[in-house]
Amino acid sequence: MRLTVFGATGGIGREIVRQALAAGHEVTAVVRNPARLTFDGPGPEVFRSDLADPEALRAAVAGRDAVLSGLGARSRADAGVAARLTRSVRAAMHAEGVRRLLVVSAAPLGPVPADQGVLDRALLALVNAALKDVYADLRVMEDELAAGDTDWTAVRPPRLTDGPLSGRYRSVVGGTPGRGRSLARADVAHAMLAMIGDPATVRQGVGVAY
To answer: What are the residue ranges spanned by the domains of the chain?
Structure first.
């Protein structure tokens, strides 16, 4: 497949690029600073952009089978970046007739599992309070995706770690895995790549966790 990856210098985006290349896909990585994107061995095609101008992004998405985005706030100070930049990506995709889009969201945006324990509910409440601006940004992003015409999937992991790729995790279309407290960025990337061709995940939020 021909894939374009936004946020390719971030932890999840870099893993998407690495795993996609290893699987034999043709990958274009859209970055602000190409110097931050280094690989041992052959790397992706690099497209430099500040992401603010949809017209400038059209060449990066034209003719692609899917677009995957690891864009999002790295701190509360960055809140707003996910919705704003995803808006530019969607506009470029619409102009080029590209429909498949997978984005990283977060577990707190999904429904609370029925078997969620008291401790997990308390921890979730604390996290929601601490990162309310970040989650509000992601909520806007997801609401705009739902109102648009792309074949989107919002992948919702819990706390992210830098653990190794395992390929062993739970996923719930339209829901949240019970007692799922963490997931490695490498496994988030693995899940996103696996969902590209899965029609059950189209226009859905998908909870993923160990």
So the answer is: 2-209
Residue in the structure block whose two tokens are 């929601």:
128
Whole-model pTM: value is: 0.92
Per residue in 37-65, pLDDT (tens digit) is 888 778 899 999 988 899 999 999 999 99
SS3 155: strand
* List of residues 6+ apart from 115 with CB closer than 8 A: 178, 179
Give the CA dihedral 59, 71, 151, 161, nearest 10 degrees: 130
Sheet holding 100-104, edge to edge: 45-48, 26-31, 2-6, 66-69, 100-104, 151-156, 204-209, 170-173
The answer to whether 41 and 73 are in contact (CB under 8 A) is no
CATH topology of domain 2-209: Rossmann fold (3.40.50)
DSSP run (H or E) holding 68: strand 66-69
Tokens of 123: 């921890």
Contacts of 199 (CB under 8 A, 6+ apart): none
